[in-house]
Prior knowledge:
The structure holds two protein chains of two kinds.
Chain A: E1 3-11, H1 17-26, E2 31-35, H2 50-55, E3 69-71, E4 79-80, H3 111-119, H4 137-152, E5 159-160, E6 163-164, H5 188-199, E7 204-206, H6 245-251, E8 255-259, E9 262-268, E10 274-280, E11 286-296, H7 300-309, E12 328-333, E13 337-341, E14 358-360, E15 379-384, H8 392-398, H9 410-419, E16 423-430, E17 439-447, E18 453-458, H10 464-483, E19 488-491, E20 501-506, E21 530-532, H11 547-565
Parallel strand pairs in A: 1-2, 1-11, 2-8, 3-18, 11-21
Antiparallel strand pairs in A: 3-4, 5-6, 7-14, 9-10, 10-11, 12-20, 13-16, 13-19, 14-15, 15-16, 17-18
Chain B: H1 2-23, H2 30-33, H3 38-43, H4 47-50, H5 63-76, H6 86-89, H7 91-99, H8 107-125, H9 134-145, H10 157-173, H11 185-190, H12 201-205, H13 217-225
Helix pairs in contact in B: 5-9, 7-10, 9-10
Amino acid sequence: MATEKTDVVIVGMGAVGGILAAELGKVGLKVIGLERGPRLTTADFTPHDELRYFQRQDLRPSTRRQPVTWRPNANAPATPLPVLNYGNQAGGGTVHYGAVSWRFHEDDFRVRSQTMERYGARAIPDDSSVVDWPLTYADVEPYYDRAEYELGVSGKAGNIQGRQIEGGNPFEAPRRREYPLPPLAADQSGVLFDAGARKLGYHPFSTPRAILSRPYQGRPACTYCGFCQAFGCHIGAKSSILVTKLPEADATGNFKLVSGAMCSRVNSDASGRVTGVAYYGPDGSDNTIEAELVVLAPFIYDNTRLLLLSRTAKFPNGLANSSGQVGRHVMAHISPRVFATFDDRFVNIYMGPSAQKHSLDDFNADNFDHSGLPFIRGAQISVTPADLEAGPIGAAMSMTPPPGVPRWGAAYRDFLAKYFARHAALVAQTENLPYADQTIDLDPDVRDQWGLPAPRLTYDWRRPNEVARIEFLHGTLLELARAMGATSAWPAPLGPGAPGAHHEGGTRMGSDPATSVVNRYGQSWDIPNLFIVGSSTFPTMSGFNPTLTIQALAYMTADAIVNRYRKNPGPLV
Amino acid sequence: MSTHDATRRTFLVRAAASAGAVAGAGLAPDAEARTAGQQEAAHAPAATQARATDSRHGAFFNHDQAAAVAALTERLMPGAPGTPGARDAGVLNYIDLALAGAYADLQDFYRRGLAQLDAYCRTTYKEPFARLDAPRQDRVIAALEDGSAAGFAWPTAQEFFTTIRTHTIEGMFADPIYGGNRDFAGWRLVGFPGAQAVFTSSDLQNRQAFTRAPIVGLQLQARNRS
């Protein structure tokens, strides 16, 4: 049992935690960062090993020791999710992610207004909880710019201060300047995708990724080895928090990272302020940190879980939950997918960064007219290996054979032998709407290795708006595959209603304390010295991967703490 | 953590090697036994290398279990002349080692699954799975896959099928340090070059098969550390 005092304690050393540790440490605040996993180094990621990192998920939480349960509705039994797609080490998910780094569109921050203005209020499904964000794209733009340049993102601008730029995404929101690094080199799947998409009149481009196309800030350029999504980068060319912000935080001299530290509770006093946290050490010890400021920055499940576990007589429904909104409006991307095979050529899609290699944005957000369509909002579409990771285990596990080919036996062997190096997949990443009854709470039956109740998801994406969108997208993906010259193309079967990747929600931000958990800075409406930063605060999710937006919001929060809160520690809004 | 990893891999290799020595069954992952001549071996036809190691097992499976798993995985991923299958790749050895290590919590799953398979085959065909002819073996597997095989409680027939299919894929395509994918049989089957350090811009745009030899990543490292 140890007690330490500090200015700031940050729970979770991932996409958010590393940025805040560096920014707050730089201005002289003493920061302790808690990380439940280990702190690895770049040298730990050699050699690449598909079984260990992809199949056995070595960089991700153990589904047995750290279970997360799921049920499709409140009447169904909850069972542990078979895969947990977030990080379990310092640097968090940015260590093993595909590094796809999007800025959201302008209308992604005002989904309710945009939909009502263009299609009328009746277009919004009655049971959804679609809202506008309490901030605009213009508010976040300086922080997107900062994140791209501080971390190192490769891409091509499509819109610089309103001027359309050839080769970039024509639907992107205006940016102040070009990306810090040019786009990553295209592989064959990218070339095929670009040609097919253009033939159909769409606007393909190289996906922006936090992977170095050239040396940057002392780190080397990507070698296109292909072991990317699910793997740590063996040369540090992926701009993970592990190799960017944690060294910067170390250099401040004001930062201490405690690994193997599982936060179990946020402590608070009778005055209604948080006083620090309790955590279990790797040796099972029970420890306390007293802090002036508590920042919650784990994956979204643990924000809700910690707030609920930290209930007191003063906060009987959990911390920061006077609105009753904690744990609600959970969202996740669903990814309808089409496999394409090419008899007349090899594609060798295992080469190069594996996730979302080239993209088109024509069907995302409100970039196309939904009039007459039975759904609102869209999806980002990209070309990728069968499972975002490109080794043969991933391909075999993910690529369901086409109709007529069995899943085993000589015909299956021949299918894999012929098409592993001749396949590509087309994936749509959907912007599922928020619904208040899609929730995270505490599982009454399942506990994790520390004896804490497991987070329990109640979630089913199969809503009419979402199902109709996926039917539409399957047609689009098949059309793209044919335009790319695929000999055959077929859709992957859709899974059950379980959430897919990139979870959002649970502590949504808003402009009204009665209907949201935090304000635009991630500051709790109820407890001004408690900040919650990450995709759990997203009111809506966009069809884009969340990480760059999470990181931009982290810079925005850091800015607000450094320049305003420090001088006047109280509500920022 | 790198120290920990090195220790873990060294342990893995040594444990496998010493188990092999005790059992006298050559249990060490192939990598340990390989020599500088491995590049040529990697390109030799799989069929010429398969026989000697057909019955590798002993870390977990008993003889009858091993025979059933060898036969079952070979039907899931069958070899043919010039085309390596599960037996050539050492899938049995992979699963056997995994159940004695990383997948130890699946020991009872396999034990019960194989006992149920045996009972089903004896009830239906009066013979254990390994002694059925290929068409009958395929009928049994189809009955596992669609869940129609009678007499399965836990694991269910479909759970058993799905798990052993997954482990067959792992044994075909995982790095050879884990005891399968012998001589890169699985990688050669599908045309995967392993963990290459670099792909050049001309590699990225080459429409032909990529034929550079697989990198012997884990094996070399394990040997250097042990």
